Amino acid sequence: ADFMPILGANLNPEFISVCNNATWAIGEISIQMGADMQPYVALVLNQLVDIINRPGTPKTLLENTAITIGRLGYVCPQEVAPMLQQFIRPWCTSLRNIRDNEEKDSAFRGICSMIHVNPGGVVQDFIFFCDAVASWVNPKEDLKEMFFRILHGFKNQVGEENWRRFSDQFPLPLKERLSSQYGV
């Protein structure tokens, strides 16, 4: 925890490797600290959101930033969820191409927790969330259940007809994957 102000000060994307390391460390520390991370969220969240939205940010920094935002949301969803709309699209596109692993798992648990707290924050970019969910090859059963609840909750909220119109915009592979994996 003593390192957080130093790590926050190093979230400068002009220095890619330093920024990448600081971002990664914040994500790792947040998993270790859990809810005790709460006082430090404000110290780093705005910079992380700026980084994930910055044009030309290298792929590895985008991925680490997305994972760290997800992990912050996993341990402190109430603090991070209000900003969901400001990062959900680049978050989803950054993580759709990484392989299933523990980092991706904790980040997606965080995004699910944040959507639970602030479902309105994902509405505009829900297709990107659907695409990111479909990127999973083999999510753990409880994570898959979280995805199922969010997808079905959204479908039930908008109604059958609106869901059909919405999902008709999906590329066919996405539509088929969501149908076969989650029944939507």
Give your account of this protein's structure:
The protein has 184 residues and is mainly alpha-helical. It is built from 11 helices and no strands. It has helices spanning 4-9, 16-33, 38-52, 59-75, 77-80, 84-95, 102-117, 126-134, 141-158, 160-167, 172-182. The chain is elongated and about 50 Å long. The protein starts with a helix and ends with a helix. The model has no long low-confidence stretch (mean pLDDT 96).
Low-confidence runs of at least 5 consecutive residues: none
**Molecular shape:** elongated
Report the C-alpha radius of gyration, rounded: 16 Å
Annotation field: number of helices: 11
Assembly level: single chain
Strand content: under 5%
Mean pLDDT: 96
Largest sheet, in brief, is:
none
How are helices and strands ordered from N to C? HHHHHHHHHHH
Task: State the secondary-structure class.
Answer: mainly alpha
Helix content: over 70%
Strand count? 0
Distance between the termini: 42 Å
